[in-house]
Write a structure and sequence with these properties.
The structure is a homodimer of 268-residue chains.
Chain A: H1 3-6, H2 30-38, H3 53-62, E1 64-68, E2 73-76, E3 83-89, E4 92-97, E5 103-109, E6 114-115, E7 125-129, E8 133-139, H4 140-149, H5 151-177, H6 180-196, E9 208-211, H7 216-223, H8 227-239, E10 243-244, E11 250-253, H9 256-262
Antiparallel strand pairs in A: 1-8, 2-7, 3-6, 3-8, 4-5, 4-7, 9-11, 10-11
Helix pairs in contact in A: 2-3, 4-5, 6-8, 6-9, 7-8
Chain A binds a DNA duplex (30 and 30 nucleotides) through residues 179-180, 215-217, 225-229, 231-232, 234-235, 247-248.
Chain lengths: 268, 268
DNA sequence: GCCCCGAGTTGATCGGCATCAAAGGCTCAA
DNA sequence: TTGAGCCTTTGATGCCGATCAACTCGGGGC
């Protein structure tokens, strides 16, 4: 018997704010979590995999699945009710937006990664669905209660936050010191790597093909460039044979090693 | 009787690698930590203030004080023995350096802040003393042992790591979207704020004066600019009356509110 | 088929910061 | 006092990416 069927995609409603009716607060024996999470595509890579069974059960009792269409806001700093989530599929973008209209994408959360800001900080970020999403969501209260009860969860979050910080600092180098050509190559390389190996870091395939979660404007907002510049640099990479010509959002990487090389050498 | 005297600056040796002889592993009753940490300038703001007495005692038993002269490396990614520390005084810079010579400063750690990367990640950072430092140091083994024994420490670290991530993301906006003029104003504002209010965030004074921990080259490496550009933008800020003319590393801010305004508006 | 609309591409020009160059100022030592 | 060496400032010029503008492409509605 396939347990996935009972929790498969067909059960999700298309309304963005509807919760899966099987989730919620019904008290469960230990095996409930096992059943609920069995079909989860990211269960071996997400933070749930790092905590004790008891903590995992508490998580299993509190989450609800949610689908979010591309473009919809997941949270913004001006709303009070916090939300936390693990990305099941799709990509979340974190944007720093200013009153004068300038904006910078400061983070992308891929499947198995965590979304949300515990201990409300000073940051002023907007989290949006870059593509259609499936999320494993927690209300702020529920998640914080679990965190207080199971400090090990803080440890798991700490590891992931440190990884995010490493990523952010790598990105800072790009924003401060790389040329436009390197930036575009870096972004495509990063997306290819993280889309094809969610959660863990393996050697990437030499060729790959994927749908970009980002438009040209969004790529530019990631890279500190304008969309015209992104477009030109993509044309250059195609001319070099690193990318194959394909439709707008479809990327066809012919050589990941070449792409990586271009992402680190300033000359054209 | 002044306890500070017993642990005052006069006891520090000038050799960078010498440890304070009073620190170390002598088993202590609860009050030992209280005595050792009593004179600590950052004890109310650092992460030690957020943990239980028992955990604080374990920390108190494990640390050693260390002075580090400006310019010296604290840790680099190629060395295996890890180190962790709380900054007592001075500023630590975290630099992302590449083989081709390009570099970007991706973090500054001020007094009361934490230095070190638990759970060794993928990042390739160099931590150096930007100014003369006093550190409260832990060996990698000692610190990780305490962390395993007292998970609450992970919670305290999580809070600080999340704050660092917020800071990094704010900095990413600067690197991606601000003009040279805004960048220089942002940096001076940030340094002034953090130097004059170590640890906590209050409204800054309208005027202030401080010694910069950074040379022009280092400021440029923070901002993704060249040192000549930094110099020109500083001249502009002086011409506007936001900064008063003073010697190279002495900054004399005449109006923090004006400085903040210039750090957010793209026009000159 | 038709138009419309938004996203992306390509071209022409502009401007801000980098780059190259030289001079000023401070510290230290002889 | 003088000169060396380093950091910083200031000036002249050039280039990369921004900006403005026109065009192409593809999809959807009628």
């Amino acid at each position: 018997m396939k347990l996935e069927a009972a929790f498969g995609l067909s059960r999700y409603m298309s309304q963005p704010d509807c919760n899966d009716s099987m989730s919620g607060s019904r008290r469960g024996e230990g095996s409930l979590t096992r059943i609920k999470c069995q079909g989860c595509a990211v269960r071996t890579a997400s933070l749930c995999s790092e905590v004790s069974d008891e903590c995992a059960n508490a998580i299993g009792r509190a989450f609800h699945r949610r689908r979010v269409p591309a473009g919809q806001v997941i949270y913004s700093s001006d709303q009070k009710n916090k939300i936390f989530a693990v990305v099941i599929s799709g990509v979340v973008k974190l944007t720093n937006v200013r009153p004068d209209g300038r904006q910078q994408i400061v983070g992308l959360q891929f499947p198995a990664e965590f979304v949300g800001r515990p201990y409300s900080g000073t940051s002023n970020l907007l989290a949006e669905a870059a593509s259609n999403l499936e999320l494993c969501c927690f209300s702020g209260d529920a998640f914080e209660a679990i965190m207080r009860r199971y400090p090990e969860l803080e440890g798991a979050l700490l590891k992931r936050t440190l990884d995010s910080l490493d990523n952010a600092r790598e990105w800072m180098f790009m924003l401060g010191r790389k040329t436009a050509h390197e930036r575009v190559a870096s972004l495509i390389y990063m997306i290819a790597e993280r889309l094809t190996h969610p959660g863990n870091r393996k050697e990437p395939m030499e060729t790959c093909r994927f749908e970009s979660p980002l438009s040209r404007t969004e790529m530019a907002d990631c890279l500190g460039l304008r969309l015209e510049t992104v477009s030109r640099q993509l044309a250059l990479l195609k001319a070099k044979g690193v990318l194959a010509s394909s439709r707008n959002r479809t990327f066809d990487v012919r050589s990941m090693s070449e792409l990586r090389r271009w992402s680190e050498s300033p000359v054209e």
